[in-house]
Amino acid sequence: MTPIKNLATEKRYLYMIILSYAISFGLSLVTSGLFWDDWVWADRNLDFFRTIGSEMGMIWFQYWAYFVNSHIILGKLLVFFLNLANGLLIYKMMKKHFTAESSFIITLFFLVIPVNYGRTVLCVSQYSLSLFLFLVAFYLVLLNFSGNRLIVRIIALLLFFLSFEMSSLLSLYVVVALYVWWQGSRFKNFWHTVVKYLDFIGIAMLYAFLKTFVLSTSGNYEGYNSFDTTAILISPLKIIQIIYYVTINLSHSITSYAFTVPAIIVLLPVVYIYVFHPMNLDEIDLKDTYILPLSFILLVFGALPYAIADKTPNLTNWDSRHAILLAPGISFFIYGILTKLKAYFTSIVFIKILLSIFFISCIIFNFSVGRELLYKNHKQQALQILLNNEVIRNNHTFLFNDQSIPNNILISGTIDSFYIFSSMFHKIYGDESRLMISDSTQYEKIKQNALTYSHLRTTGWIEEPITHTVTLSMHHKYGPVDEFKLLIYSLFNKTKYRNLLMDIYFIEVSLIS
Taking a C-beta distance cutoff of 8 angstroms, is the pair 396, 513 a contact? Predict the structure, then answer.
């Protein structure tokens, strides 16, 4: 294949990669809000995280979790740059075997494919770190494949071992083994390669042994991500289901907004002219017949751990974490399809326009998720003010009725986890005596969980039937001007931010008869 010959071209591709990523996820840097299980872990000491880490069977997770939850803004910065670094590592590795254009396309879509809705949420931030450690180790293997630099080998082994804290990476580690086997054809035979890299096989087996017999889950996390023989036997069918579901979900996600078509019309000339038009697609090697099979391998081993654990991803909520390892496979699949299109279409312009439309759709989706999380943060900030009133102070069980969801591009904007409300109450009143739910039909199930799991801040709940309804509403429609003002005030003027929240939101607490 043709190596990168033009340094200016490489720099331009790097700028485009970084800019595309920044537009997609830059909003995550301007909110210090808590989301999902972040609320459970807020304001906790190291002993709490040590307990969680022990129950989850983790080695270093507890220290990372304590650090990012104690330094929220710094934690979000780290997560943002770790995910960007993962993309840049992919780019560096791709350059060793692909052309500049091919490396650029694979990396670009690896970063912007919307398969990780919750990538900026601190409670799953360890996935970004684990993947970073894994990719650094893989890159070191590429650098030192035929060399005998012992220190590089040791560092790679250590990083692989630490990355396995995200246990699903053990599945993707098979791809590393396949790469070593493929490159090992330069050696005398297969067994020669096996012996030469026996330590890399051993490191995975060591972690698998420790995870099974020493670092097993317990306590609140007993049986978490466990599987049995039946799960393994039906995993091939489950893998097909996951890949199919992600494909349909992805197609729906990036085409589900009313504004998508006009946005594409506006952005298409810009993206086409500055991103894809300058690309020399003649540099794409049509002889890369192994690209689609490779994408299939990446998809299968990316989906395997979720299939075995019976986890089905949903790209528009927190369950998107069950699709994190599918991003490499999807990126290679896009590139593989591109090589096939180039073989059958004489118009390179048509192919570049298709790339541009798909790319813009991904960017729009990611940016919209950022807007949704900002909106959720504003709503949560308002609730922390409004829930501090005499009626709530003197009662203990409530039904939450959200009438404040704007009808615009947001995916959901709802707050429905009882432990988020409990954490808010704890922050406001300093105790765990209150429970608020958003679905009365789930009362008995939630009551059991609330009294069982101490880390949900509800074990001190004074048990009683639901007595009051808390309705959150808006004084006026939440529009783009409010959205912009809230963003600016949240960064630079906390007093105006609080006042604007009170101008927008209000609650009514009514007695259930």
Answer: no
Of the candidates 213, 31, 179, 12, the residue with the CA atom closest to the CA atom of residue 108: 12
Q: Residue with structure tokens 């751990």?
A: 305
- As a whole number of angstroms, the distance between CA 106 and CA 110 comes to 6
* Exposed e or buried b per residue across 318-349, where buried means at least 16 C-beta atoms within 10 angstroms of its C-beta: bebbbbbbbbbbbbbbbbbebbebbeeeeebe
pLDDT, tens digit only, all 513 positions of the chain: 444 456 777 888 889 899 999 998 988 888 878 888 888 888 888 988 888 888 888 888 889 989 998 888 898 999 999 999 999 999 998 888 787 888 888 999 999 988 887 777 888 889 999 999 999 999 998 887 666 688 888 999 999 999 999 988 998 998 888 887 777 665 556 677 777 778 888 888 998 888 888 878 877 777 776 666 776 777 788 888 888 888 887 877 777 654 567 777 777 777 777 777 777 766 565 455 678 888 888 999 988 888 888 888 877 777 778 888 889 999 988 888 887 777 777 677 888 888 888 888 888 888 888 888 888 889 999 999 999 999 999 999 999 998 887 655 455 556 778 889 999 999 999 898 999 998 888 888 888 888 878 788 888 888 888 889 999 999 887 788 888 999 999 999 999 999 999 999 999 999 987
Spatial separation of the C-alpha atoms in residues 476 and 467, rounded to whole Å: 28
Does residue 283 contact residue 102 with C-beta atoms inside 8 Å?
Answer: yes
Report the distance separating Cα 113 and Cα 95, nearest Å. 20
* Tokens linked to 251: 């197609």
**Token digits of residue 294:** 């490779």
Three-class DSSP category at 477: coil
Give every CB contact of residue 95 below 8 A, 6+ residues apart in sequence: 3, 4, 103
Tokens of 165: 């804290």
Helices (H), 254-389: 260-271, 291-308, 327-344, 348-386
- Contact (CB, 8 A) for 25 and 87: no
Helices (H), 57-124: 61-70, 72-94, 100-112
489, 420 Cβ separation under 8 angstroms: no
